[in-house]
Amino acid sequence: MKRTAQFLRHRRTGFTLVELLVALSLAVVVTALILATFTSVNVARRGQAERAACLSTAQRVLQQVADDLERAFVFKADKATTFNLVRGVAASNAVLELAFARVASLPGEDDLRWAAAARVSYRLVEADRSNLTLYCLSQPLAGPGALQPTTTNQVFQGLENFDVLLFDGKDWKDTWVLEKSNSTNTVPRVARLAVTARRGAVRQTIVTDVIIPIGTKFAPPKKEKGKDISKIR
To answer: Is 60 helix (H, G, I), strand (E, B) or coil?
Structure first.
């Protein structure tokens, strides 16, 4: 009788099969919840990184093109300074090409006397669908560099879209060409730039308007009767 009581007491100190199954099921559920939380956090973090990368790419492309447009210039009769926006350039396999002359200071120089004039061309080439490469071609217009071959730099590879519209003061135009060989060079007032970048499943589009100073005409203030505007401070 005593041995039987001791045997039953030792049996009650262990776990039954049902208790082990319940504990195992709870452990599986908790582990699954932890893994799900960890996965969702990683996905969210990866999405934020991809969005930031896309935004940075679009901003960098827009900033470079905008900086050059703000420094654009023309000489009325010099074809090397003609402002052009053309589409479907078969000779260069370009989807879009934006070309103009610009003046920019040399790297590390703040003195305008050391500024260099060059003709730049932003050329969008399509490798395959939704995989566009933007190139910047630069050719100095004066000095020894004018005799050298055109320099080609890759701005960015893997853009989904890059588009330009130009405003002449009345309408937005998707092309800008010199109509006649003897006509005067003209420059648009505003350029609307749109860049779409993709990284993984994330897509970012940025659109910005750039005022082109050389193409913008500012009317002088009208003189009011009885007032001399030149003396107003």
So the answer is: helix
Provide the whole-model pTM. 0.69
For residue 10, count other CB atoms closer than 10 A to its CB. 9
Over the stretch 111-165, which tens digit does the pLDDT of each residue have? 667 778 899 999 999 876 667 889 999 998 887 778 888 888 988 888 888 999 9
Q: How far is CA 29 from the centre of its chain?
A: 45
H helix or E strand, kind and range, residue 108 = none
Task: Provide DSSP, 135-193.
Answer: EEEEEESSSGGGGSPPEEEEEEEEEEEEEEEEE-SS-EES-B--SSTTSPP---SEEEE
DSSP secondary structure letter of residue 83: -
Whether the CB-CB separation of 136 and 155 falls below 8 Å is answered with: yes
Structural domain span for residue 115: 51-215
Does residue 16 belong to any structural domain of this protein? no
Burial 83-114 (b: 16+ CB within 10 A, else e): bebeeeeeeeebbbbbbbbbebeeeeeeeeee
Q: Domain tally for the chain?
A: 1
Burial zone of 123 (CB within 10 Å; 0-12 exposed, 13-18 middle, 19+ buried)? buried
